[in-house]
C-alpha cells in the first residue's frame, strides 16, 4: 500500500568542489538489475500511468523536480521529488503517474528487474481488479 512507500536519504559527500551522492546496493531493499532515466521531458508532459505486478523501483530527481502521484487501489498520495540525495522507493502493486516536470528535470530509476512488458498493468480499472 502507499504506507509502504519510503523516502530513502542517500549519503551526500560535500566539499568545495561540489557534492557527491552514492547508491550502494545495501541501501535499497532489492538488488537492481536495470537503470534508466527520463530527461528532455517537455513542459506539461505526463509519464507513467501504469502499475507493476512485481517490479520495485527507486526514483531520484537527479536534476530539477517533478511530482509522483501514487495509488494503491484505495488511497492516493503525491510525492514531490526535487533533491538528488533523496529518492522514492515504490514497492510492487502501486499505480504511478509522473507530472509537473520542471525544465531540465532528470528522473533516474533503479529497477529490481529487467524490462518485462508482461509486468505492466496499463489500465486503471484492470489495476483496481488486480488489487481486489
Ligand atoms: C515507470 C516510470 C517511472 C524499454 O524499452 N526499456 C525500459 O527499460 C523502459 C523503462 C522502457 N522501454 C520502452 C517501452 C516504451 O516503448 O520505452 C518506451 C517508453 O516507456 P514507458 O512508456 O513505459 O515510459 P514511462 O516513463 O511512462 O514509464 C517508465 C517505466 O516504464 C515505468 O516502469 O515506473 O518510467
From TrEMBL:
Segments spanning the bilayer are none
Q: Which residues form the Sugar 3,4-ketoisomerase QdtA cupin domain?
A: 4-131
> What CDD domains does the record tag this protein with?
cupin_QdtA-like
Q: Which domain of life is it from?
A: Bacteria
InterPro entries given in the database record:
QdtA_cupin_dom, RmlC-like_jellyroll, RmlC_Cupin_sf
This protein is called WxcM-like domain-containing protein
Annotated source species? Flavobacterium alkalisoli
Amino acid at each position: 500500500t502507499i504506507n509502504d512507500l519510503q523516502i530513502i536519504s542517500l549519503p551526500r559527500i560535500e566539499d568545495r568542489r561540489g557534492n557527491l551522492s552514492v547508491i550502494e546496493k545495501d541501501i535499497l531493499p532489492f538488488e537492481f538489475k536495470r537503470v534508466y532515466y527520463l530527461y528532455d521531458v517537455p513542459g506539461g508532459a505526463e509519464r507513467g500511468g501504469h502499475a507493476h505486478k512485481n517490479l520495485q523501483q527507486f526514483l531520484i530527481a537527479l536534476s530539477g523536480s517533478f511530482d509522483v502521484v501514487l495509488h494503491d487501489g484505495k488511497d492516493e498520495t503525491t510525492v514531490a521529488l526535487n533533491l538528488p540525495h533523496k529518492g522514492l522507493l515504490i514497492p510492487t502493486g502501486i499505480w504511478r503517474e509522473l507530472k509537473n516536470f520542471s525544465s531540465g528535470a532528470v528522473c533516474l530509476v533503479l529497477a529490481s528487474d529487467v524490462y518485462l512488458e508482461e509486468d505492466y498493468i496499463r489500465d486503471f480499472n484492470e489495476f483496481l481488479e488486480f488489487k481486489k
